[in-house]
Amino acid sequence: MRYELYYWPMIQGRGEYVRLALEDAGADYIDVARGKAGMGAMMKMLEAKKGLPPFAPPFLKAGTLVIGQTANILFYLGARHGLAPKTEAGRLKLNALQLTIADFVVEVHDTHHPIGVSLYYEDQKGPAKLRAAAFWKERVPKFLGYFERLLKASGGAYITGRKLTYVDLSLFQIVEGLRYAFPKRMTAFEREIPTLVGLRDRVAERPSIAAYLASDRRIPFNEDGIFRRYKALDK
After folding, report:
1. What is the DSSP annotation of 183-232?
2. Between vectors from CA 222 to CA 221 and to CA 223, what angle results, nearest 5°?
3. d(CA 198, CA 196)
4. Residue 207 — pLDDT band, cuts 50, 70, 90?
5. Which of 15, 21, 192, 213 could tie 58 with a disulfide, CB 3.0–4.6 Å?
6. pLDDT grade, residue 1 (50/70/90)?
7. What is the chain's mean pLDDT, rounded?
8. Given its phi and psi angles, is residue 164 left (phi above 0), alpha (psi -120 to 50 degrees) or beta?
9. β-pairing, 3-6 with 59-62?
């Protein structure tokens, strides 16, 4: 079965967590909005008058199923592509970790848009500077410290032990994104999370992921995505 991934074609964003899972699994998929007339197809599905259309991208079409929300998509893919535990209890625990990552992603976004998403960064520079400082003082240690502890306690190379899951792929993306958006702050902080950095390196070395990162399918980080680089916030 060929999957159809629907997400904005110019950014990594939340769609990248799904792309990483599809790429690692070697799944057959198309990134619909990046193709000819793809944006129109995506908007048509979002604006559908019947059924339960997705609220926003990303969403995944798998046969007749249309699955919205990043964590929900990964919950579906994980069970079908060996990226999640086989037991229901294990899959639910993994989903909880992915939802925690989703919470963190919102906090990353709010460092540069703390007042409102409809306002330009230039309209909220002062609050953004305060938010970024609090983010690095309080929130990064809380979230990444949590995952660092889980990795150390797992007794293996990955979050649940010896086998990679979609959460490991998502943690790779978190480290990569923070390195791009906050290079100075992240360089200083990485000494606090050596196990998490090691996980990042192991994921990057996986043949399927290494090939993806070197391909044009991997959209570069840019100033339109969640992980944005503003020098004023990286101090």
Report:
1. HHHHHHHGGG-HHHHHHHHHHHHSHHHHHHHTSTTSPPP-TTSSS---GG
2. 145
3. 5
4. very high
5. 15
6. confident
7. 97
8. beta
9. antiparallel
Q: Sign of the CA dihedral 168, 129, 229, 112?
A: positive
pLDDT tens digit sequence for 114-136: 999 899 999 999 999 999 999 99
Spatial distance between the Cα atoms of 19 and 70, rounded to a whole number of angstroms: 10
Q: What is the pLDDT of residues 69-83, one digit of tens each?
A: 999 999 999 999 999
Nearest in space to 42 (alpha carbons), one of 1, 10, 70, 9: 9
Q: Can you give the length of the chain in residues? A: 235
Give the separation between CA 105 and CA 70, rounded to whole angstroms.
Answer: 11
**Among residues of the chain, what percentage have pLDDT more than 70?**
100
Neighbours of 4 (CB within 10 A): 20
Residue 119 to residues 14, 19, 125, 165, 231, Cα–Cα distance (Å): 20, 29, 11, 37, 19
